[in-house]
Specification:
binds magnesium ion; four-stranded antiparallel β-sheet; six-stranded mixed β-sheet; 23% strand; 10 strands; ATP-binding; ATPase-coupled polar amino acid-transporter activity; binds adenosine-5'-diphosphate; alpha/beta; MetN_ABC_transporter-like
Length: 260
């Protein structure tokens, strides 16, 4: 996708390219007594690819969901391209369109064709004309290698194909940042690479990405930075090579010992 930094000027932020695209400041979140996100500070630059890893229950999904406001936060600040996420309504829908999300389960609409799955958002949320949406959808489906499946229903596709459709669907909203929450962990092993390859290609094209995954190959190939989370905190962050060969904290060492 061609990137046009001039396309979304913001009155409040004249030099929008200098500020982080995603900014979290002292973000806290509880589920009842459970403190799930603890003073999270995070800045993701335009075009940066950040891989988030950490033990189960450490708050990775909650972090993603908070960035997209699928989850509220108790306090702190979350900004996308300088703008704080509004609580609800049209403004939220619009800003949410800036943040594409791909989940572990593909969540495609079961009774709509692959093509309709991808055109629905642009038409409904962005008010795009049907033909333009179709054209966009077909080009995105082609990009992830499933354009020949456009007329089928999701159940007729393999898991790997469905997940690539989910990526195309998210891209159809022309997001500024893409969040991936364990996008390959529900897939059969032989399908993991076709999805990771699509993600690597996206990273190479300059998309800003936050990716929760334990796929070290992807992190090594595509990540600018690895963030290690444990117990609701960012414990450590480094370039992938450095993190995997020389983790500093005991928790990261322990975790890597289990998954590598
Ligand atoms: P991760 O993605 O790293 O495995 P999560 O963000 O899913 O971690 O969960 C962090 C913690 O918050 C876990 O202890 C989980 O059980 C808890 N949790 C997540 N969602 C909810 C919820 N909706 N209600 C209560 N507890 C939750
Ligand atoms: Mg999770």
């Amino acid at each position: 996708m061609t990137r046009d930094p001039q396309s979304s000027p913001s009155a409040s932020a004249p030099d929008s390219s200098a500020q982080p695209l995603v900014l979290l400041k002292k973000v806290n979140k509880h589920f009842g007594e459970l403190h799930v996100l603890k003073d999270i500070n995070l800045e993701v630059a335009r075009g940066e690819v950040v891989v988030v890893i950490g033990p189960s229950g450490s708050g990775k999904s909650t972090l993603c969901r908070a960035i997209n406001r699928l989850e509220t936060i108790d306090n702190g600040e979350i900004r996308i391209d300088g703008k704080e996420l509004p609580a609800e309504g049209k403004a939220l829908a619009k800003l949410r369109a800036d943040v594409g999300m791909v989940f572990q389960s593909f969540n495609l609409f079961a009774h709509k064709s692959i093509l309709e799955n991808v055109t629905l958002g642009p038409v409904k949320v962005k008010g795009m004309k049907g033909n333009a949406a179709k054209e966009l959808a077909m080009s995105l489906l082609k990009r992830v290698g499933v354009d020949n499946q456009a007329q089928k229903l999701p159940a007729q596709l393999s898991g790997g194909q469905q997940q690539r459709v989910a990526i195309a669907r998210a891209l159809a909203m022309q997001p500024k940042v893409m969040l991936f929450d364990e996008p390959t962990s529900a897939l059969d092993p032989e399908m993991i690479n076709e999805v990771l390859d699509a993600m690597v290609a996206l990273a190479k094209e300059g998309m800003t990405m936050i990716v929760v995954t334990h796929e070290m190959g992807f992190a090594r190939k595509a990540a600018d930075r690895v963030i290690f989370m444990a117990d609701g905190q960012i414990v450590e962050q480094a370039k992938p090579e450095e993190f995997f060969t020389n983790p500093r904290s005991d928790r990261a060492k322990d975790f890597l010992g289990k998954i590598l």
